[in-house]
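The protein record passed on below.

***
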Amino acid sequence: MNITTPEALREIYAPAIERARLKSMRRLDVHCRRFIEKSPFLCLSTQGPNGADVTPRGDQPGFVHILDDTTIAIPDWPGNNRLDSLTNITLNPQAGLLFFIPGVDETLRLNGTAVITLDAAILQSWTVNDKHPKSALIVTIREAFLHCAKALIRSRLWHDDYKIERAELPTYGQMLKDQIDVETTVQEIEQSIAESYKNKLY
């Protein structure tokens, strides 16, 4: 049996408790601001013509800049140039963000709309090795709230219980070689990846 309507879904779940219903805010308060300032990592969700997409974004804590109570800026540092998220934003501005802080089991959720900016004053607010991002996302917040810790408690994300030795999986280069039909060798792929990690993080 598949659930296909909101009404059918609600029949199998209890009502949301009061604090879950009331915690949604339309702007950043002091706690949301502090969370963003301490976060080195987030997941960005967008929606395009081919469906939903999610991508990681990360840097040192504070890499997401708070412009005001309803606006944040996220730098677009070098990636793989697929531009999945940015392309989606040009077609559909809706965006969702999930912020993480290592060691903290709660997360911060933001929902809103995003635009891509090339504003020099904004881009120059990030400088690493004399480099600035090519663009930045400006997100206007529609909804902000802290998410409880259950998922991270269950996953024990910040503990060592489920941590594996990297050798339990093939190298990234080997997995790419197995997945794509190219004449490049695994060694050449891994050398290219290592070079990008060394010289193209910013």
Remarks:
- The radius of gyration is 20 Å.
